[in-house]
Amino acid sequence: MKSNKSTLAALISAAVLFAPALAQANKHDSALDKCVASAMELHPGTILGMRAELENGKRQYELDIAGNDGQHWEVECSAKSGEILEVEREVAPNDPEFTSKAKVRLDEALKTALDAYPGAVMKIEYEIEADDSVSYEFDILMADGKLMEVEVDAVTGALKDPEEVLYQIGQ
């Protein structure tokens, strides 16, 4: 019986000594972890995909979230700090909130994007920005193999800063 008590005491001592180290080892505090936590707090739902992107020489993450609110959200975060940089809501092409504000037609926006970034259009999205402005977003696969995310303001037709997609996981 004495050996069982000694073994139990040793196990308890080990647990007390190693629990803080184990907790620290399992702590997730990378920029991506912070990004995911902040994005899910802001728009709870299911993460459908994640991209690593490069915009103006700065790395960022973009999370695509099917929100519990029935909306589709894109949340961009700094790859350095995990801080949320931008939030957009993807809508259908005929969404009244988008169509009532858009002054530039899709074909005009597409021409603007392809003039600047010639290639094959892989995807088209209709976005409502956090400030309620609207834009078209195109994924363009360029001849050199780069995938560019190119955004055109749907009111002014202005080209916004493009993002090079470094890799993508999921949709």
Automatic annotation (TrEMBL):
It comes from Methylophaga lonarensis MPL. Residues 1-25 form the signal peptide. Keywords: Signal. This is Propeptide PepSY amd peptidase M4. Residues 33-88, 106-158 form the PepSY domain.
